[in-house]
Automatic annotation (TrEMBL):
Its main location: membrane. Acts as a magnesium transporter. SUPFAM superfamilies: MgtE membrane domain-like (SSF161093). InterPro entries: SLC41_membr_dom, SLC41_membr_dom_sf, SLC41A1-3. The chain crosses the membrane at residues 62-84, 96-123, 135-155, 167-187, 199-219, 291-309, 321-341, 361-386. This is Solute carrier family 41 member.
Length: 395
């Protein structure tokens, strides 16, 4: 989708939309995957067994992610405007309002759709006796990328078309979604579990959005260079796979800790200050085994995506052997770093009385976006320097 839409007028003339891509894709980590992890834990420890409990969890959590989606979408658009304005020194109020309307509308609609899908998946998994931790977060990650990219491309293109004849449409879209905020806040405050997140859960969401926006700036600067246009099609893939895998691991560790008590309580699963790489990947611990399995999934997973991209003739990059080696090295290094950080971060947060379901996944997926985009950009630059250049670049 990114590869196709990068040639649309809105992506050509309002290049700041590229900055929104990692930030809005990061919403799946900030919101949907956090929702999936939170509801999976609630399901596993018996907090959704009765219809009344289930309804309270659904309404409270859906209202909460609408609040977060609207606010983060608005802040992401401001970050895109600032990051786009500082290097170029050019500011357009029409483009700024377009970015705001596109970002808020995409974030709101994507969160609504994905939130409903997540709830259905978790309830269905529970009824079939499947651990929701293994199902919900991967579905949130994969569907999140597809739905968010489709919505951002379609909405930004539609609103860009309206700029010339109906300039009032963009501010009207912004005002509409922001005006709905008080309704979602009131509903979220009625649920004790979501009330706490509504007050205290903003720091990881906003910091994660800022981290993802830096990744978006790297993407914007790189894709704007015709020599590296091919990076657009691979960025969502490497970031999606990395965020997917680390979210599964974080959700599993969090559920494992919740089964032994409450955050902050000391037990035999007590948090480690700084785990060694050996204990993270090579111990007999159940979480170490899952880390090894997830790491081993990187190569076959990416090979499938590379084959699909090649078959569909997507992007502007010929899949040479040296390109695949550099790409795989970047992907493996990204996931290795993320799994190690997840092991440390989830235990560290648990020891400081913070629920990892609410706090860890936004940071981890945002770091995945930044590390993945950075390593991919570095790989493209190195390949260009050593002479692995495509004859079809810019086609």
């Amino acid at each position: 989708l990114v590869s196709l839409s990068q040639h649309w007028d809105v992506f050509k003339y309002v290049t700041e939309v590229f900055i929104l891509v990692p930030a809005l894709l990061g919403l799946k980590g900030n919101l949907e995957m956090t929702l999936a992890s939170r509801l999976s834990t609630a399901a596993n420890i018996g907090q959704m067994d009765t219809p009344k409990e289930l309804w309270k969890m659904i309404t409270g959590n859906m209202a909460l992610i609408q609040v977060q989606a609207t606010v983060v979408g608005f802040l992401a658009s401001i970050a895109a405007v600032i990051f786009g304005w500082i290097p170029d020194g050019h500011f357009s109020i029409d483009h700024a309002v377009l970015l705001c309307a596109s970002s808020v509308a995409t974030a709101f609609i994507a969160s609504l759709v994905l939130g409903m899908i997540m709830i259905g998946v978790i309830i269905g998994s529970r009824k079939m006796g499947i651990n929701p931790d293994n199902v919900a977060t991967p579905i949130a990650a994969s569907l999140g990328d597809l739905i968010t990219l489709a919505l951002l491309s379609g909405i930004s293109w539609g609103l860009y078309k309206e700029l010339e004849s109906k300039a009032y449409v963009n501010p009207l879209v912004c005002a509409f979604f922001i005006a709905l905020l008080p309704i979602w806040i009131i509903i979220a405050k009625r649920n004790a579990a979501t009330r706490e997140v509504l007050y205290s859960g903003w720091e990881p969401v906003i910091i994660a959005m800022a981290i993802s926006s830096v990744g978006g700036l790297i993407l914007d600067r790189t894709v704007s260079d015709p020599n590296f246009a091919g990076m657009a099609v691979f960025t969502p893939v490497i970031n999606g796979v990395g965020g997917n895998l680390v979210a599964v691991q974080a959700s599993r560790i969090s559920t494992y800790l919740h089964m032994s008590g409450m955050p902050g309580e000391s037990s035999e699963t007590a948090p480690r200050k700084c785990p060694s790489p050996c204990s993270t990947f090579f111990s007999s611990d159940v979480n170490s085994r899952s880390a090894r399995v997830l790491f081993l999934l990187v190569v076959p997973g990416h090979l499938v995506f590379l084959y699909t991209i090649s078959s569909m003739q997507g992007g502007h990059t010929t899949l040479t052997l040296i390109f695949i080696v550099f790409y795989m090295t970047a992907a493996l290094l990204q996931v290795l770093i993320l799994l190690y950080i997840a092991d440390w971060m989830v235990h560290w947060m648990w020891g400081r009385d913070l629920d990892p379901d609410n706090f860890s996944i936004p940071y981890l997926t945002a770091l995945g976006d930044l590390i993945g985009t950075g390593l991919l950009a570095l790989s493209f630059h190195i390949l260009w320097l050593i002479g692995d250049r495509d004859s079809d670049v810019g086609d």
